[in-house]
Amino acid sequence: MSLNDTPSGERIHIGFFGRRNAGKSSLVNAVTGQETAVVSDVKGTTTDPVYKAMELLPLGPVEIIDTPGYDDEGELGELRVKRTRRILAKTDIAVLVADISRGMGECEEELIRLFRERDIPYITAFNKCDGDSPAPEGERIIGVSAKENRNIYRLKEMIAAAAENGGSQRRIIGDLIGQGDIVVLVTPIDEAAPKGRMILPQVQTLRDILDSSGIAVFTKETELGKTLESLDSPPKMVVTDSQAFAMVSEIVPESVPLTSFSILMARYKGFLETAVKGAAAIRSLKEGDRIIISEGCTHHRQCGDIGSVKLPRLLKKYTGKDFDIQLTSGRDFPEELSGVNLVIHCGGCMLSEKEMLYRRRTAEAQNVPFTNYGIALALFNGILRRSLGIFPQLAEQVT
Predict the structure, then answer these.
(1) Fold (CATH) for 3-166
(2) CA of 49: how far to CAs of 86, 107, 162, 349, in Å?
(3) What's the half-sphere exposure (Cβ side, CA atoms, 13 Å) at 4?
(4) Which among 70, 74, 93 has a CA at the least distance from the CA of 82?
(5) 170-399 is classed in which CATH architecture?
């Protein structure tokens, strides 16, 4: 996998914000070295967020986001501003673009307030420092000229420094195993499996095992028993697709730790403890309660789809009740959760840690329990405590 094949959820998201005609799109083009965004002297040329995945030296794989002007007006303008605010949920580093001739105003101050509220590191880039115009400098301030390519590399260095200071050190599985440990990865191949490839959590888990000098053994659930018998000693751990929990838990001896890709991804994205607490709410759901089942990616839903078919069916079987279920996918996650009794989210492999944090906090701020697919499926199969055995403090919370 090349750097430009890095999934969006693993990229650093850099958002360019500011008022209309501050030169955001011109600066994005200068930073990327490409005609990423449409440039015009007409205010409001950028009407929707523009995304560009690329390798940005000296930083590495990033996703650049050019946003509409935050001072946009009218009914459509308000919708664009709302979209811009939603971009903040996934922004790891913000670049506030201000026109040097206009300086800082209410629009810029409002954006800075939002950056600080969301703990987003930001850099203020005063654009249009053309010719002999003085270019301001400071710890997080720089004068640039997109037109003359002035201080563009210095801006990249400042972005890279901000990324290094705020980077996450979480591992998927590498900190749970040692050199030479064998991990068996159970990957069902059914009608929902992508043709000719593995899904992202499986690939990322494999890579983390190899980075830790562990040994990964892939098998289908139907071959798991034979696979375990072929090993000279029990594996360090078995990791399964959550949908195969029932079958896999019967095959894997109690002495061998068992968990799922979804549970590992929840920890990696920073919301495992929240998901465990949220699962407790499933037992107290009432007839007709409203549940949101949310996925971070978009895909064609098939007859055995986990979000639209399997989870609703298992929810009814486990609780004996019918619910009002709403499905969301991709970038769509409701900000207003009044009347919602539970959110069940996927593992979030296609979403950044920042966006998963935003979604979790959105639910918490409105007192809505928040769990994920792997935790819910382990609960339905009666093996939640066991699936959390590699995290003893969390396993003890399961009643």
Answers:
(1) Rossmann fold (3.40.50)
(2) 10, 18, 22, 22
(3) 6
(4) 70
(5) 3-Layer(aba) Sandwich (3.40)
What is the overall mean pLDDT for the chain? 87
CA dihedral sign, ordered 120, 124, 48, 58: negative
Q: If we measure between CA atoms, which residue out of 63, 68, 122, 62 comes closest to residue 95?
A: 122
Helix 261-268 vs helix 373-380: crossing angle, to nearest 10: 140
**pLDDT tens sequence across 146-183:** 999 999 999 999 998 887 765 556 799 999 999 999 99
CA atoms within 13 A on the CB side of 159: 30
Q: Give residues with Cβ within 8 angstroms of 13, minimum separation 6.
A: 62, 63, 65, 90, 91, 92, 93, 352, 354
Say how far apart CA 101 and CA 88 lie, in whole Å. 26
**Of the candidates 342, 205, 332, which has an alpha carbon nearest to the alpha carbon of residue 262?**
205
Residue with tokens 């563009």: 152
Strand 258-260 versus strand 60-66 pairing type: unpaired
**Tokens at 62, concatenated:** 């990033």
DSSP symbols for 191-224 = TTSPTTS--HHHHHHHHHHHHTT-EEEEE-GGGH
Helix axes 272-279, 261-268, angle to 10 degrees: 120
CA dihedral 325, 326, 329, 331 (to 10 degrees): -140
Q: What is the DSSP string of 365-399?
A: HTT--EEEHHHHHHHHTT-HHHHTTTSHHHHTT--
CA distance 134 to 130: 9
Residue found by looking up tokens 């499905």 in the block? 327
CA distance 98 to 105: 9
Helix pair angle (272-279, 373-380), 10° resolution: 40
Q: How far apart are CA 274 and CA 316, in angstroms?
A: 23
Note whether 3-166 and 170-399 share their fold.
yes
pLDDT digits (tens, 9 = 90+) for 223-234: 999 999 999 999
Where exactly are the structural domains of the chain?
3-166, 170-399
pLDDT tens-digit series, residues 50-77: 888 888 776 778 899 999 888 877 777 7
**Predicted TM-score (pTM) of this structure:** 0.74
DSSP secondary structure letter of residue 10 = G
Sign of CA dihedral 108, 111, 117, 120: negative
